[in-house]
Specification:
This protein is 33% helix and 24% strand. It is an alpha+beta fold. The chain starts with 8 loop residues before the first strand and ends with a strand.
Length: 457
Amino acid sequence: MRRNQAPAGVAAGHPETARAGLEVLAAGGSAVDAAVAACLASCVAETVMTGLLGGGFALVFDAARGEASVLDFFVAVPGLGAEARARELIQLEVPFGEELVHYAIGPASCAVPGVAAGLRELSRRHGRAPWDTLVEPALALARAGVAMPEAHAACLAMLEPVMTYTAAGAALYAPGGKLLRTGDVLRQPGLVAALQLEPAELDEALLALSDERGGALTREDLARYEPVWREPAALDYCGTQLVSRAGLAPIGPVLAGLPRLAGLPPAERVSALVRALASDGPETHTTNLVAVDADGNGCAITTSLGLGSGDFLPGLDLHLNSMLGETDLLRGPLEPGERMQSMMAPSAALQDGRLVLAGGAAGGTRLPTALVTVLAGILDEGLGAQEAVDRPRVHPAGALLHAEPGVDEGGLAALEREGFAVRRWPVRHHYFGGVSVVSTAGAAGDPRRSGLALALR
């Protein structure tokens, strides 16, 4: 391996997700094979965050061609989208950190999903392993059940009103009336059948529930949906070409406007980050993973269910997305068939035509904060990957500045003098997003999401 090329490995937001990707990578799979297998595993291990009925984006770097591309498999607006907004949605208040956030859930909040179609398209275009090989790690997890890591159990506790809204959800996440806690095993036996369904069979099951429960999906919506390949946004940053998915998360513009941080005193560094970062977008629950193979190919995938609608496909344990109920995603009129907006920004950094970093983040409004902080830490300040991910974060939300323990107090005091109200969090928290990265500076999973990074030996 060249020293200026990212090493082979996998990083993800759950240990079992990372292990699934590494298993396929070690068996000779490509970076995309590993990422697809990891994403399928995340649809079993991380169902508090994501699932097959959600949407997402992937950034793929093809080393042989020296090209990066983005696959858009985010959710689309149903033909009955406008009508669905007028239907009765279930209004909930969910504690997010110290704040109550308003959500709308229920079957009518489900947009046209894309994860299942997107993963098959990634495999078709860039994979070399058979589909059955990619599904097997996820099937093994579905058969055995998955222990809940600390961060995922904490998120489940926060989302309990949604995840247990229906009897189906309560049976999965609060068996016997007791909500799962850290170390408890999440059992979703229906996912064994769900993972083996053909796309048309999955569509039929989803359509049947939507029709029965007053959802917005139609047969035409599901039939016409397809993943779309798009050009990534690009900019020169700290001696690399940074490529990223353009969207609501302004990763490129923020980095372009960020002064060089290397060598700045800690207080000035905090002030520079806060001034550069925006904070506009939805409070969704998301996960991210990344894989790099020995040939220098890379793939970063970010997926989400939104909050989740609270409804599950009978017998399949699949949670419906709630994207039509995420009001901050509804930018402009709802046009049937059009993609909804998203904060997701899977990214890569290239140097002399080689991949030196692949990564992405989860975290809704905190996604750009987390990703910009880590990218700047690695590419500008020369930090190791885990050091950059572990570093305490700040997140500006209007005039309110959220700060993790360990953020420079001199910088926070200066920002308070400028008019910011600083909320000092008592512990490191999943509120501040979750980054997964594989780079020449190492690989890292985010402890805020119980993440894990594994290197191919």
